Amino acid sequence: MPIRVPDGLPAAGVLRSENIFVMPESKAVHQDIRPLKVLILNLMPKKIETETQLMRLLSNTPLQVDIELVRVDARASKNTPKEHLDKFYSDFDRVKDKKWDGFIITGAPLGVVPFEDVYYWDTFVEILEWSKSHVTSTLFLCWAAQAALKVIYGMKKETHPKKYSGVFEHSTFNQQHPLVRGFDDVFQAPLSRYAKFCPEDIAEQTDLNIFASTPGAGVYLAATTDCRQVYITGHPEYDFDTLANEYQRDANEGLAPEIPSNYYPQDDVSQVPKATWRSHGNLLYSNWLNYCVYQQTPYNLDELGSID
């Protein structure tokens, strides 16, 4: 089944070139089925790149998914054309009266910034509270995961002196759970964060079930028992060269970054890195859409109840 995207969205052309079934909105409206309505709050600076990465993963299921993009920061972007934002993004006020099957909140390059200093922090907190009664399942990615832990559970921000950057091996737990159904005992996933997610802290301070972690950097995947909230502390959506681009960006800014771990062949930045996490990323998003969204959401979204 296809992913349904707005007519003219740049990601559609990229996905079609990869033989991914993409259906334009103008055609999808004539199908007599209800697609899953998924809202994406895109906080990443390179919004077109992130849109494409996420939609690539969301398209890999038999379910029709209706995407809407939303923003909370109305300031001019240095990395995304204003015309693109004005055409394809809604302000939160335009979507908050609706209910949604799924909600994805991306990461943001704010790893060393105190939460209260984030320009849109108050709006972010409002959106998290709103999601409890308006969304079947919310997926928090990287910075959004740490921010949500702060808002929902009061967990203190724990910042590591050095950035966890690279491809890390993670162990899978609770493999009988649908969210990690089909996962290998260990799998690779990209990390790009300063935050540290200690399993002991999450176990003591939250009611989350932990499904994957890696030594040092800690928890990678966790969720509430009902999967209304799912936390991913890495970036399974990343392209093969995203970490390389981030490394070069930081180097050009004089930050002297360390070479991403387990990423470049022989740690040689002149060589082309290879993605070793695509299958895990596709499976994780497929499981989330199927088990946490599709099989839990009411056909009539108006019947959706609030998180207790």
Automatic annotation (TrEMBL):
One GO molecular-function annotation for this sequence?
homoserine O-succinyltransferase activity
Stored NCBIfam families:
metA
Gene this protein is translated from: metAS
Q: HAMAP family from the entry?
A: MetA_acyltransf
Positions binding substrate in this chain are K163, S192, R249
In terms of InterPro entries, this protein maps to: Class_I_gatase-like (IPR029062), HST_MetA (IPR005697), MetA_family (IPR033752)
Check the record and name the PANTHER family matching this protein: HOMOSERINE O-SUCCINYLTRANSFERASE
Q: What is this protein called?
A: Homoserine O-succinyltransferase
Pathway connected to this protein: Amino-acid biosynthesis; L-methionine biosynthesis via de novo pathway; O-succinyl-L-homoserine from L-homoserine: step 1/1
Q: Which GO terms describe its biological process?
A: L-methionine biosynthetic process from homoserine via O-succinyl-L-homoserine and cystathionine
Predominant localisation class: cytoplasm
Report the protein's function: Transfers a succinyl group from succinyl-CoA to L-homoserine, forming succinyl-L-homoserine.
List residue numbers at the site (Important for acyl-CoA specificity): G111
Q: Which residue positions does UniProt flag as site: Important for substrate specificity? A: S192
Record EC number = 2.3.1.46
Q: Which Gene3D superfamilies match?
A: 3.40.50.880
